[in-house]
Amino acid sequence: MYRVLKMENIDPDFCQEFTITGKRGKTRRISAPSRSLKIRQRWVLDHILYQISVAECCEGFLKNHSICTNAKNHIGYNQSLNLDIKDFFPSITQDRVFQVFHEMGYSTDAARGLASLCCHEGKLPQELNEILWE
Questions:
Q1: Tens-digit pLDDT profile for residues 58-79
Q2: What is the DSSP letter of 34?
Q3: How many domains does the chain contain in total?
Q4: Quick check: is 92 in a domain?
Q5: Which tens digits make up the pLDDT trace of 75-119?
Q6: Collapsing DSSP states into helix, strand and coil, what is residue 24?
Q7: Range of 47's domain?
Q8: Residue 37: inside a domain, yes or no?
Q9: Is residue 127 part of a domain?
Q10: What is the largest CA-CA distance in the chain?
Q11: Residues 70 and 59 sit within 8 Å (Cβ to Cβ)
Q12: Are 82 and 69 contacting, i.e. CB atoms less than 8 angstroms apart?
């Protein structure tokens, strides 16, 4: 984990900033992590986050789960509700990410380092969605 955390103070160059235009003409700012940062984020996902036990009914962002495995739980029901929470990832602050790692038992320094690896400009980037689903 030391090799992962030695990037605690991540240089801004580890994220490439650009803007894309969505389907409806709305622009969206993207902060894409460099290959080096993405490898470290993947390590955190595989060695820490995927080790957390979650409720059996949870499907999102679990290894070997998808919208298809989630849909199987709803077969036979007349109705279902699908929600897309606007700006979900950016609504989670770096302080909250730090708190999660700290509550998992990581030292203050380790939790701070892990949170800084996961966050950009003090929040979870929207692009984390792509890292989780790779």
A1: 776 677 777 777 778 788 888 8
A2: P
A3: 1
A4: yes
A5: 888 887 877 788 888 899 999 999 999 999 999 999 999 999 889
A6: coil
A7: 2-53+85-133
A8: yes
A9: yes
A10: 52
A11: yes
A12: no
